[in-house]
Amino acid sequence: MRLLGKSADLDASAMVERVETERLAVHFSSRRMNRRAALVVAAVLALGATGLVGADLALFLAANLALALAGLVAAVRVAVGTLPYDRAVRHLRPPLPGGPNTTPPTPPPPPRG
């Protein structure tokens, strides 16, 4: 049933195309962000290797930068819709009762009498 006519169909297809284009742009920008994050972490590790910064401090900074930048990339992808929210936060939630790693509850004893 078409209530709005052909122009509405064109508007909807243009909107879908625009959303897909934006998702692709975010996907490639998140890849660039990942590449930049890797370069930043490598630079911090190189500072530790050269002795300009202590090795333990360089490892600490590199690990924290990697986690922060990965979280930023995931947040951007969730906001735009290229990463489903449930996949992004799956590891943050405790397992639900009755999940795959739980034992089934014991059945009640049979009634007497």
From TrEMBL:
Keywords: Membrane, Transmembrane, Transmembrane helix. It comes from the Eukaryota. The chain crosses the membrane at residues 37-55, 61-80. Residues 90-113 are annotated as: Disordered. Residues 94-113 have a biased composition (Pro residues). This is Uncharacterized protein. It comes from Heterosigma akashiwo (Chromophytic alga).
